[in-house]
Amino acid sequence: MVKRLRLISTAKRVGVVTRPYPFRPTEVPEEFRGKPIIDGEKCTGCGSCRNVCTPNAIEIEDDLEKGVRRVKIFYGRCIFCGRCSDICPEEAIKLTKEFELASKTREDLYQVIELKMVKCKICGKPFTTERSLKKTLKSVPEELHEQLYICPDCREKSTAYIESYTKRR
Amino acid sequence: MGVNSMTINMLEIIFQKISSPSLLLTITAIITSIILAIILDGVERKIRARIQCRMGPPILQTLYDLVKLSHKEVIVPHGASKFFTIAPKIALVMLIINFLYVPYGFKNPLGFYGDLILFIYLLVASTIALIYGGLSSGNPFSEIGCSREVSLLMANELAIALIIASIAFKTGSLSLNALLENITLTPSILLTIIALAIYAYIESVRLPFDIGEAEPEIATGYLIEYSGSLLSLALCCHIYKRYLLMTLLSIPIYVLIKNIIPVKLNIILGFSLFIAIVIVLYMLYSIITSISGRFRVIHAVNFVRASLLLPIASLILATIGL
Amino acid sequence: MVKEIIENIKGAFADYIIGIEVNKNKVYIEVEKKCLRPLVKLIKTNKQIHYVTSVGVDERPLRGGFRVYHIFTSIEEDYSIIIHTSTPQSHLTIPSIVPVTPGANWAEREIQDLLGLKFTGHPDPRKLILPDDWPPNIYPLRKDTPYNIRPPSKPTLYPFKRPRETSTLPIGPYHPLLHEPEYFELYVKGEEVVDVEYRGFHVHRGIEKLGESKLTYNQIPFIAERICGICGFTHSTCYCQAVEEAIGIDVPERARYIRSILLELERIHSHLLWIGVACHLLGFDTGFMHAWRIREPVMQLCEILTGNRKTYGANLVGGVRWDIKEKGVKKTLNVLSKIEDEFKRFIEDLMSIREVKLRLTNTGVLTKKDALKMEVVGPVLRASGVKYDVRKAHPYAAYKEVSFNVPVYSEGDNMARLIVRIDEVLESINIIRELIDKLPKGPIITEEIEIPGNRKGLSMTEAPRGENLHFIITGRDGFIYRWKVRAPTYANIPALKIMLKGCPLSDAPITIASIDPCFSCTDRVKVIDIKTKKTITVPLMRISRGKIW
Predict the structure, then answer these.
(1) Ordered per-residue pLDDT tens for chain C, 549 residues
(2) What does the DSSP assignment read for B250-288?
(3) C296 touching chain A per CB within 8 A
(4) Out of 3.60.10.10, 1.20.1530.20, 3.30.70.20, 2.60.40.350, which CATH number does the structure's domain A27-168 have?
């Protein structure tokens, strides 16, 4: 009976370990994986995050009428694994420390980024985002810059035409 | 003329009695106790929590719980008998009557010869009323819980019978007030006090002996079908029973302490000392319950049987004058 | 020893063997189905062979028919023997091996439910997994059944095998008092339990089917982590190891060490959780609070190392995603020394409580013979006197490079199971210290991975609850063709029938909890008194208080 009184002295030494959350805010460590947020200034709409997203929470759709590429994250499906953040080449998507995401409306759980797209010089269809094009321009020599403003389908057709023309010649 | 003077005399006597300081203080003590019992239950939960290294609910939480329950819907099960709804009310009334007869550190003007028997009787009867109320709910869980519980408590009642007998031998009286005068430090009284302490612990249905009745937090056992205001009343009965057992235990301890200290206590100081002893004992019991596991029924029954030695020994010593 | 067994097989059953494949330490023997039972009988005559599970595969798109793999492993050597046989679609029957291996009971019933194969000679071919109102002839795991099928409901009654002289008062497994849906029926004579019936699988989520239909090979580690609420990382590691073995890549050394460190941390917090729950069932709530208080720094440490308290998300096929840097190492060593002191003190306090010791000693006894017969795993096996720990017998990750003891006790009662887990916590603390000491430098993941089709991979790990097995067959285009998970509790629950026989009723909950099942033990139990012919359903919490007649 006497030995178990040590429980009381342990309790005294340790004190209270529970925290008064939610009446007071609680801190999470630096490494905590919370809500992922896309930086609209950096995203190029490449779609790597959508390819690697584990629960398919990221969707990318092209609005051809408005000429806009929409990148949507739905936090209802997100499992906060962080693969999108690992793979993004622009470091545009980062996991914050936010975890209090409950909401009464479904719309609160989306983040939507709209990126302006570039229209093809030949057929007029929007085919890539402006930022993505700017980035490619930096790594491609000046002579080929004009080619970049043509969408892949038209470029294929024109190269095929040139090839077949040279073959015939 | 004669009748008028008789009525005037009677009115005088009644007026005297009502305005006597001990009656006023008794009424204050009763009201204080009724409130204090609820606060002490909150203190017990806080002590339990602190030993478990957590914050625990605020001390008034029990009061908030009882108030919240009192305005919730009461659902009476289909197969319940009429006694189901009456039982908590009867039990609570019995316990409140008990408050009237406790000598709160001074001679209770309402006391009478034999009120010790009444006290114990009402205490046990309220438990049985609650258990019977649970049984009459028609729920199979209550059925199977109650029978084990009753068997343990019945073994315990033998202890209190022997304790009363040895008290009666020693004080020569069956009244609670008589305890205030005739308790002295003799071996028989000492054993009686220890036996009474163990009886009070087992009867208050705390860990390690809560095998049948429910702790108010996990309402299973006979409380399972009670809801709303009926549950609030049933929980009150638990709380008051624990408090009354503490007051019963405090009476002889208070007398012993009063005899030791050199200062003569007036009525108000006596009352304060008494309440202080009740609070300290309650907290001590809370600490013991927080560091215990639960007994299997066989072990609990064996423990109760073994503890019967104490009241038997004290009775024998009382009869031979020690 | 195992090589001798294989030579014996080759000699005795030469006519029936269709092919033998060796993949490192796993031997796949393909046989004709008629020699299955005598072959398994021959294998099981060796004491060191332990049956793990059986896997059914729908091979109709590949080469027609169905295939069943029976997986055996050696307790002493790092070898596994997998016997497989196929049956054409026209004759969907295979001889059952249950008469020679009682442990195969559930595995074969599962294949029967999910794939529609019939096992001739099975002593108890009742439904196991599918709910009572599942229509006949729809088999979920077949390749032509879509993963999101919602079949119509066709209610039937489950044929419980009740001892005679009972009548039933049906109160089902779904009840407001339950924490998780499970269903036990205890048959009682007075104070003693005579027999038990179990129905589970109410939370079967079809994860294997999802893995085969919708998910890519690198999405599966994340869903594997969510199979269990406590030992998730073990499952994802086991899966990744199975795929890595199938495609034949090596994981970098540093990644293996990091995996082992996280696995041992998981073991510590899982055992601490269990000790708390056991205290709670014994009524010792203070013990419950203190055990979980000691566990909390481990959870916070995991949050610092991986970003989350429980779902680490650290595994990918080929390695791990995050590194343990200086700050992590320092914090780990700090937390470990703090926990070691607190834990040792707590255990001394726990053992000083007489009520706890009385309730745990000599209840729920499982003898060594029964333990081997029912093929139990994990601490349950080690508490019954058999020394089998996958980390020693089939070393994986970095366990070959550390030295540690495996605690074994022979009493087989609830107390022994508690002490095995206590010892394992202390051993894990030392293992982590040694791993951190020897942590090598280098990459943590193999980047370029190709998944060729039709490769088999088998991996076993020691989860906190026992031996965990993942078996995969790769498919086309980087998808998985078949993924089989055998969790340790699956093997331990059938042994409850033996452990609960003769157990006093108030100790039934702690006995059920002592196998550390992955469901909360505040569960619904049906108590049937054979003498008075009454059936009443009670929550397990109440029985542990002795509230039954």
Answers:
(1) 788 888 888 888 888 888 899 888 899 999 998 889 999 999 888 888 999 999 999 999 888 899 999 999 999 888 999 999 999 989 889 999 999 998 899 999 999 999 999 999 999 888 888 888 888 888 988 998 888 888 888 888 888 777 665 433 323 355 433 345 667 777 766 667 777 778 878 778 888 888 888 888 889 999 999 888 888 899 999 999 999 999 989 999 999 999 999 999 999 999 999 999 888 878 888 999 999 999 999 999 999 999 999 899 999 999 999 899 999 999 999 999 999 999 999 999 999 888 888 888 888 899 999 999 999 999 999 999 999 999 999 999 999 999 999 999 999 899 999 999 999 999 999 999 999 999 999 999 998 888 888 899 999 999 999 999 999 999 888 889 999 999 888 888 888 888 888 777 677 777 877 887 764 322 334 444 455 555 454 555 555 544 443
(2) HHHHHHHHHHHSSSPP-HHHHHHHHHHHHHHHHHHHHHH
(3) yes
(4) 3.30.70.20
Contact list in B for residue A5 (CB cut-off 8 A) is: 291
Which amino acid type is present at position A70?
R
Question: With contacts defined as CB-CB under 8 Å, which chain A residues touch B54?
Answer: 16-18
The answer to whether the CB of C94 falls within 8 A of the CB of C19 is no
> What torsion do the CA atoms of B210, B211, B214, B216 make, to the nearest 10 degrees?
30
Complex ipTM value: 0.88
Measure CB to CB from residue A54 to each of C219, C290, C306 and give the nearest one. Answer: C219
Alpha helices in C307-361 (DSSP H): 326-351, 354-360
Any idea what DSSP says for residue C549?
A: -
Interchain contact, A14 vs B287, CB within 8 Å? no
> Phi and psi of C88, rounded to 5°?
-70, 160
Peptide bond connecting A22 to the previous residue in cis, omega within 30 degrees of 0 = yes
How much is the pTM? 0.89
A15 touches chain C (CB under 8 A): no
Q: If DSSP states are collapsed to H, E and C, what string results for C108-120? A: HHHHHHHHCCEEE
Q: Where are the beta strands (DSSP E) in C443-543?
A: 456-463, 466-474, 480-486, 524-529, 534-539
Interface of B with A in 178-197 (CB under 8 A): none
Residues whose CB falls within 8 Å of the CB of residue C316, separated by 6 or more in sequence, listed in order: C218, C221, C240, C445
E strand or H helix at A62, and its extent? strand A58-63
Tokens coding C129: 């997994």
Between CA B199 and CA B163 the distance in angstroms is 9
Q: Among B51, B220, B296, whose Cβ lies nearest the Cβ of C542?
A: B220
N residues, chain B:
322
Q: Locate the domains of chain A by residue range.
A: 27-168
CB atoms within 10 A of CB C175: 13
By the CB < 8 Å criterion, does A33 face chain C?
A: yes
CA distance C494 to B173: 64
Question: Who among B51, B55, B292 is closest to A11 (CB)?
Answer: B51
B263 interface with A at CB cutoff 8 Å: no
- Cβ contacts of B297 within 8 Å, gap of 6 or more: B148, B152, B211, C506, C546
* Per-residue model confidence as pLDDT tens digits over A48-70: 999 999 999 999 999 989 999 99
Domains of chain C: 2-159 (3.30.460.80), 207-491 (1.10.645.10)
Among candidate residues B243, B239, B288, B293, the one with its CA nearest the CA of residue B51: B288
Alpha-carbon dihedral angle through residues B224, B229, B232, B237, given to the nearest 10 degrees: -90
Please name the helix (run of DSSP H) or strand (run of DSSP E) that holds residue B122, with its range, or none. helix B115-135
Would you call B54 an interface residue with chain A, using a CB distance cutoff of 8 Å?
A: yes
Q: At what angle do helices B61-70 and B228-260 cross, to 10 degrees?
A: 150
